[in-house]
Amino acid sequence: MIAYRIKITSWTASFRYPNLISGYQPSLVVPPLSTIYGLVSAAAGKYVCAYDMPVGYVFKFETQVIELETIYQFSSKSRLVTKSNVIRRQILFDNSLWLYLTDAEAAQSFLHPHFQLLLGRSNDLASVQSVEEIELEPVTALEKLRGTTVPMRGIPMSAPIQALPVSFTDEIPRRNIRTFPFFLLNYDYRQPEPLPESGFQDTQLDYEIYWHDYTKL
């Protein structure tokens, strides 16, 4: 299959756990699908969700730390009254994201993004290193997935599980679209047994790609 491999890098990244508002703020070890489609939307300059195009991706970070961060909280009675607080936030450093698309127009938009690309919060700025047309080889079983998310769907895997939205709507306030339980596979994850699902392989980088295709849902 002809696809486009987009390499995106950033100094910092953080992917918030859903429903955690105050206190310690951990980061997911891989970006959720909603972040991936947010990147595609930012590059294309228009709303793109999981119903529009399939994607695959591999994410890697070199290290992680806990940062002390000052935040300012608004009063419930008046937004003019604030108080400062210090929280602990987990930050991922020296990040690389390999994004795979089959939509040529969406892929080429990463060469001249309409909006800034972020791997998390507004200060987690990312940049595009390359956009390449490649050939992905189909595989009938996935044996060495890493650095990605895999929807649970009754498939046994020895990895952390988190309920995550596939996409968000473009209305205000935003609503999540189709929340699924996902396995979170770190980049150094090693599968104990093959996953009986079809996917693709990037033979140049030796990555197996779980293909997230929600266009038929």
Question: What's this entry about, in short?
Answer:
With 217 residues, the protein is mainly beta. It has helices at 33-44, 104-108; strands at 2-13, 56-74, 82-101, 117-118, 125-135, 137-139, 148-151, 161-168, 176-185, 199-202, 207-209.
List the helices and strands and how they pair.
Elements: E1 2-13, H1 33-44, E2 56-74, E3 82-101, H2 104-108, E4 117-118, E5 125-135, E6 137-139, E7 148-151, E8 161-168, E9 176-185, E10 199-202, E11 207-209
Antiparallel strand pairs: 1-3, 1-5, 2-3, 4-5, 6-10, 7-9, 8-9, 10-11
Domain count: the total is 1
Q: How can the largest sheet be summarized?
A: 5 strands, antiparallel
Q: Reading side by side through the largest sheet, how are the strands ordered?
A: 2-3-1-5-4
Q: How many runs of DSSP E, i.e. beta strands?
A: 11
Assign the CATH class.
Alpha Beta
List the total number of helices: 2
Distance between the termini: 22 Å
CATH architecture: 2-Layer Sandwich
- What multimeric state do the chains show? single chain
Textual characterization of the structure:
The chain has a single domain, classed as Alpha-Beta Plaits. Helix content is 8%, strand content 44%. It is built from two helices and eleven strands; from the N terminus they run βαββαββββββββ. The strands form three sheets. A five-stranded antiparallel β-sheet has the order 2-3-1-5-4. Strands 6-10-11 form a three-stranded antiparallel β-sheet, with no helix packed on it. It has a three-stranded antiparallel β-sheet with strand order 7-9-8, with helices on one face. β10 and β11 form a beta hairpin. The longest helix is centred in the N-terminal third of the chain and has 12 residues.
